[in-house]
């Protein structure tokens, strides 16, 4: 739980455009601003292609922003010099767990070397014995066992590979973890274990998470606040409970209405609320604090209506 | 009912540096025309390997230990590579779990989607590309026509999966195997894809095997469900039987672990422990070490299937006539009450 609201990450008017000026130009992020407080979990949900991964990657400086900035612990990460001590520290403090457990593991490396890569880069272990012991500990932490250490990624199922990715991220004891759909590839029982595990590690080590997902029901368990993205913009940002019980933006409502429940009778009757993106086009819109700590991307008239309806 | 697929006594081993992995340990199931079978189960339980076998796509280090796979009456396991190629993308298509490995990173997506048409039909290039744009739009790629020349890395994870679905359906297969096709998608798109698959099924009478760990999706799409654990099917039944009258403690655990929007628990229920290492599969019931209801016999002897109805069976000693009555978890009792109501005065355990 968050006790103070010191921002660890501040995203300011971030714009990310791919293939600028070309026929296939994609405006992946359009003026995105939000904070992530120290020790909190911010859930980031939204449609496929809405810009969640791009946001996550921007936070580990995989891209140069088209415009806008990302501050980590008050420092503009675009200004960190490659190879500098600050850059190295930033690389260690911020880790990403990738969406795609297949593509993110080097197929020619043994699991123990994948996990220990960060340990080696940051000189966190001092002997082969210590290295093996630390790897074994990390494997246990994510529900794998020591025997797995000398195998190769292709010998694992999708879910097992994702856990290897989590172990690799935890190895360097980061402060901030961006988890890009870390549980999508896992079956429910393991999802629950991983979500509980991420929570336990957070409680123990005071970590800050950006938890990217499309599964709102899981996100609800892990997040303090939830940001909803659509079309490269943040359309709603509020506490997890607010988003669930009191969604305001029509896209959020549509998202909530589409969550399938493990109940054949109710699934037979499900009528998802359709969302027509045109209802949020035109007019002057911005992310406005409609209610205390509850932000919605809206026009002035919509803001008034939202406040009225409350 | 026309039988599309019949898998009997399938067992598959993998040779690895660490030893032999007994990945699939005697699996039976079947599928009729127009039916949807969902396969659920823990990561590593063998869902993908089973389906790759049906596609004739076994890894180099795999060995078929026993069994047969009949697709539309023909034995897959003894077909030539040429015959298998003819079958894939034509009679049977698979949507793979990982969109990135099933797309060619060096080829524009339009060409990849059009390829099955060019390979298996007499379509002209121009017609195939037009059809590709149409199917891409159908699966929800915006500006499909303009993006035909883009490469896979220029699309988001969910968009890539939709491209893979487009490739699979462009040639109207008889059997469509979807390996976690919606895991990478947000729920609204997932709902659309599920709808799309149902629609294709209704139009073409396609049989669908849907692998997923999302029991919510299963509830909405499946006619029948098979639950896998450690290389075996441990329970199967109609969708109602599995959701409202589950018998195997592993199925109970899966249902309990589902988060529901209304629930307010702070911690999720998780099945404790990890699945067994299939290098040395346990002697008794593979689930026993994680099963709070395990009995002595579970450690010693593998349970056979016990029939619950004509369509429903579970491999658990709890169903043995001499087994003591157990008290299922609250969530399971709630479900069984719904079943009891559905069945009238049905006696439930
Ligand atoms: N390197 C790139 N070049 C061109 N376009 C890109 C690139 N990376 C992403 N995009 C585009 O940017 C948009 C946002 O993609 P992003 O991967 O951030 O989506 P996402 O929200 O993570 O989606 P998903 O839930 O499917 O993973 C998409 O339209 C995508 O096609
Ligand atoms: N080529 C291979 N060599 C060795 N072992 C393999 C190989 N392919 C799969 N396995 C093993 O076979 C078992 C079944 O794997 P499979 O990919 O079918 O699991 P799955 O049920 O699809 O899991 P997930 O839900 O994680 O995708 C796993 O233990 C896996 O490690
Ligand atoms: Mg993504
Ligand atoms: Mg799989």
From TrEMBL, chain A:
PROSITE patterns: ABC_TRANSPORTER_1 (PS00211), ABC_TRANSPORTER_2 (PS50893). The keyword Aminoacyl-tRNA synthetase does not apply. Pfam families: ABC_tran, oligo_HPY. The keyword Cell cycle does not apply. Keywords: ATP-binding, Nucleotide-binding, Peptide transport, Protein transport, Transport. It comes from the Bacteria. It is found in: Cell membrane. InterPro entries: AAA+_ATPase (IPR003593), ABC_transp_ATP-bind (IPR050319), ABC_transporter-like_ATP-bd (IPR003439), ABC_transporter-like_CS (IPR017871), Oligopep_ABC_C (IPR013563), P-loop_NTPase (IPR027417). GO terms for molecular function: ATP binding. Residues 9-256 form the ABC transporter domain. Gene3D superfamilies: P-loop containing nucleotide triphosphate hydrolases. It is a peripheral membrane protein. Belongs to the ABC transporter superfamily. This is ABC transporter ATP-binding protein. It comes from Lacticaseibacillus baoqingensis.
From TrEMBL, chain B:
GO terms for molecular function: ATP binding. It is a peripheral membrane protein. Residues 5-255 form the ABC transporter domain. Keywords: ATP-binding, Cell membrane, Membrane, Nucleotide-binding, Transport. InterPro entries: AAA+_ATPase, ABC_Ni/Peptide_Import, ABC_transporter-like_ATP-bd, ABC_transporter-like_CS, Oligopep_ABC_C, P-loop_NTPase. SMART domains: AAA. The keyword Transcription does not apply. It is found in: Cell membrane. Coiled coil: none annotated. It comes from the Bacteria. The keyword Membrane applies. Residues 329-349 are annotated as: Disordered. PANTHER family: DIPEPTIDE TRANSPORT ATP-BINDING PROTEIN DPPD, OLIGOPEPTIDE TRANSPORT ATP-BINDING PROTEIN APPD. Belongs to the ABC transporter superfamily. This is ABC transporter ATP-binding protein. It comes from Lacticaseibacillus baoqingensis. The lineage of its organism: Bacteria, Bacillati, Bacillota, Bacilli, Lactobacillales.
């Amino acid at each position: 739980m968050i006790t103070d609201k010191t921002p660890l990450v501040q995203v300011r008017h971030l714009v990310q455009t791919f293939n600028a000026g070309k026929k296939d130009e994609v405006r992946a992020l359009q003026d995105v601003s939000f904070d992530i407080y120290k020790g909190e979990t911010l859930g980031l949900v939204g449609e496929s292609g809405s810009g969640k991964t791009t946001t996550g990657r921007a936070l580990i400086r995989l891209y140069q922003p088209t415009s806008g900035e990302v501050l980590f612990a008050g420092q503009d990460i675009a200004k960190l010099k490659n190879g500098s001590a600050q850059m190295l520290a930033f690389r260690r403090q911020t880790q990403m767990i990738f969406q795609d457990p297949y593509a993110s593991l080097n197929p020619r490396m043994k699991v123990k070397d994948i996990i220990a890569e960060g340990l080696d880069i940051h000189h966190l272990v001092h002997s082969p014995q210590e290295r093996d012991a630390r790897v074994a500990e990390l494997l246990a932490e994510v529900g794998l066992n020591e025997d797995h250490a000398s195998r190769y990624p292709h010998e694992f199922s999708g879910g097992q590979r994702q856990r290897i990715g989590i172990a690799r991220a935890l190895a360097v004891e980061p402060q901030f973890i961006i988890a890009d759909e870390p549980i999508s590839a896992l079956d429910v029982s393991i999802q629950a274990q991983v979500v509980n595990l991420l929570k336990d590690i957070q409680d123990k080590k005071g970590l800050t998470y950006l938890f990217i997902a499309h599964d709102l029901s899981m996100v609800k368990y892990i997040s303090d606040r939830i940001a909803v993205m659509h079309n490269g913009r943040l359309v709603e940002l509020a506490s997890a409970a607010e988003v669930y019980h009191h969604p305001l933006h029509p896209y959020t409502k549509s998202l909530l209405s589409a969550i399938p429940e493990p109940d054949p009778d109710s699934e037979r009757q499900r009528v998802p609320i359709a969302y027509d993106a045109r209802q949020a086009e035109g007019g002057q819109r911005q992310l406005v604090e409609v209610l205390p700590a509850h932000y919605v991307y809206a026009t002035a008239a919509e803001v008034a209506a939202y406040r009225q309806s409350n | 009912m026309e039988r599309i697929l019949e898998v009997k006594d399938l067992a598959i081993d993998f040779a690895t540096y660490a030893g032999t992995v007994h990945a699939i340990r005697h699996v039976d199931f079947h599928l009729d025309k127009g039916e949807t079978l969902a396969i659920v189960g823990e990561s590593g339980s063998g869902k993908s390997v089973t389906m790759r076998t049906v596609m004739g796509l076994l890894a180099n280090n795999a060995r078929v230990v026993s069994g047969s796979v009949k697709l539309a009456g023909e034995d897959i396991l003894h077909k030539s590579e040429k015959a298998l190629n003819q079958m894939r993308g034509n009679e049977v298509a698979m949507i793979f779990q990982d969109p990135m490995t099933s797309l060619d990173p060096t080829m524009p997506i339009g060409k990849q989607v059009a390829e099955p048409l060019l390979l298996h039909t007499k379509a002209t290039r121009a017609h195939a590309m037009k059809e590709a744009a149409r199917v891409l739009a159908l699966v929800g790629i915006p500006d499909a026509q303009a993006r035909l020349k883009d490469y896979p890395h220029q699309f988001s994870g969910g968009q890539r999966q939709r491209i893979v679905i487009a490739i699979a359906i462009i040639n109207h297969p008889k059997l469509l195997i979807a390996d976690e096709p919606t895991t990478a998608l947000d729920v609204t798109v997932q709902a659309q894809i599920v709808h799309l698959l149902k629609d294709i099924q209704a139009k073409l009478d396609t049989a669908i095997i849907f692998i997923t760990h999302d029991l919510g999706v299963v509830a909405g799409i499946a006619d029948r469900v098979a639950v896998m654990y450690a290389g075996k099917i441990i329970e199967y039944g109609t969708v109602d039987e599995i959701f409202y009258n589950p018998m195997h403690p592993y199925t109970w655990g899966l249902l309990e672990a589902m988060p529901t929007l209304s629930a307010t628990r702070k911690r999720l229920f998780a099945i404790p422990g990890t699945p067994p290492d299939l290098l040395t599969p346990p002697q008794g019931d593979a689930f026993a070490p994680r099963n709070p209801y395990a009995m002595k016999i579970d450690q010693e002897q593998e349970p056979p299937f016990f029939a619950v109805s004509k369509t429903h069976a579970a491999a658990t000693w709890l169903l043995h006539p001499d087994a003591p009555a157990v008290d299922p978890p609250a969530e399971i009792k709630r479900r069984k009450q719904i079943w009891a109501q559905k069945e009238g005065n049905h006696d439930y355990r």
